[in-house]
Amino acid sequence: MKLIDFDAKLTTYIEENANYDALEGLSEEKMAEVLDEMSFTLYETFMNEPKSWLSGKRPNEYFDSFSNEEIIDMYLEYFKQFGSPPDLLISKMVQIGLAIEKNVFDIINNGNNSENIKMTSMGILEDMGSTLPMDTYIKMQVNRRKHDDIADLAMEILKYMPNDDVKNKMIEVFEISNEYGKDAMLDILAKPNCDDMVFKYVLNTFSIAEDKELYAHYLNNIGDDRALPTLLEAAEFANYVDWLEIRLAIESLGGTCPERDFKNDPMFRELHK
């Protein structure tokens, strides 16, 4: 399949038509502002001008003449030939919307596809406003690795899906999830009136964690005063960075945090030079 490299065409167009003389003598800040305006104007002109290499069509209407099946085929082929599809094609796919939602979802679920293809496809479904991958994105957390770009992106997208639906489905798998999965879900689940299973996990993990700052933050978010005794005990021994977050949690729960002398704490000395 012969594809058009729109990104290369646009780069050439900008290089040939940009008025770089207008940048002479400008401050760095003003130069960046003028460059942004120039790039935007040239981009808009490029997209809306008829092109001979498109048989007189405008770039922004090029993909209108293809079927949905052809759009999906071209999308995957662009990764093979150029590493990524042009923004024009992605915008067209978002515009088509639900008619190709399942096709894009299947691309994410295809184990033969690269991380780049999957993550780009996840972004397209997000821009469509699709909730179809909700269950899949939650399942990605259950046995996830600590560092997992796809699972991380899935979590970010889940934050913008219907909150109650996401929370209910997460609660169903929370107990069977590994520690990295549980920790990832806390951004959504560690809120006021959370499930007691979540509160107990956060409290227990806070108690044994070497770095307590994050879990103190979650206990603060949850706002359950049953955490006060544990927080107060930890405040007596925590390092300066952890103590700051623990103090916030204690005070938000109506307690009084014990004062400490941190003059020998390396981070305290670094922050108070």
How does this structure look, described?
The mean pLDDT is 95. This protein has a domain at 190-273. It starts with 5 loop residues before the first helix and ends with a helix. The chain is built from 15 helices and no strands. By secondary structure, it is an all-alpha fold.
Uncertain residue ranges: none
Q: Topology as H/E string?
A: HHHHHHHHHHHHHHH
Q: Mean pLDDT, as a whole number?
A: 95
Distance between the termini: 62 Å
Please sum up the structure shown.
The chain has helices at 6-17, 28-48, 68-82, 87-96, 101-109, 115-128, 134-142, 149-158, 163-174, 179-189, 196-208, 213-222, 228-235, 240-252, 266-271. With 273 residues, the protein is an all-alpha fold.
Please describe the topology of this protein.
Elements: H1 6-17, H2 28-48, H3 68-82, H4 87-96, H5 101-109, H6 115-128, H7 134-142, H8 149-158, H9 163-174, H10 179-189, H11 196-208, H12 213-222, H13 228-235, H14 240-252, H15 266-271
Helix pairs in contact: 1-2, 3-4, 4-6, 5-6, 6-8, 7-8, 7-9, 9-10, 11-12, 12-14, 13-14
Key traits:
flat, mainly alpha, 0% strand, 273 residues
